[in-house]
Amino acid sequence: MSSDTWLVAGLGNPGPGYAHNRHNVGQMVVDELAARIGGKFKTHSSRAQILEGRLGIGGPRIVLAKPMTFMNLSGGPVANLAKFFGIDPDHVIAVHDEIDIPFDTVKLKYGGGEGGHNGLRDMSKALGTKDYLRVRVGVGRPPGRMDTADYVLKDFSKDEKKDLPFLLDTSADVVEELVHHGLDSAQRKFNRLS
């Protein structure tokens, strides 16, 4: 594969019991992108489900990935896919939940720390660098004294579920803008929305 191929990894936990948790919003965004591309995910030897395609007619080649490991072990499958497809870390996009951003807000970032996110920490370790793109999908902070782990492993609230389709759609738009026009353009276009 050429260097114009992008790997978009939706972070989350495997199995139907976790499918609608806040922690799985990254995989929900990847599902939205898959609906736009068309086709079905297939199991890859890297312990991930993948879908290869193009964003738009003649658009950039993209590999959508949903690691089939638990969140804290996301790095191995992502690094293995990057190696398999010959994708450099600067063409890897991690889509993940972010408690430090309000629900319905999306932020973009390149490199930097993981902010206590164990899925990102494992990715950085496996890729051997923190220099990859992140689409940070806001899920808000836990209410009161609720434990963060308990909060992110719960489904979105009834009110949040009403707006969730819009959040997923916007997050997928952010990924498309990143792939087509780069980080600066995507930040100018979407970070102002928050």
How large, in whole angstroms, is the Cα Rg?
15 Å
Specify the structural class. alpha/beta
How would the global form be characterised? globular
Summarize model confidence as the mean pLDDT. 94
Biggest sheet statistics: 7 strands, mixed
Unreliable stretches:
none
Strand content: 15-25%
Total helical elements: 6
Tell me the series of helices and strands, N- to C-terminal.
Answer: EHEEEHEEHEHHH
- Counting copies of identical and different chains, the oligomeric state is single chain
How many distinct beta strands? Answer: 7
Q: Percent range for helical residues? A: 25-40%
The rounded distance between the terminal residues' Cα atoms is 36 Å
Largest beta sheet: what is the strand line-up?
2-3-4-1-5-7-6
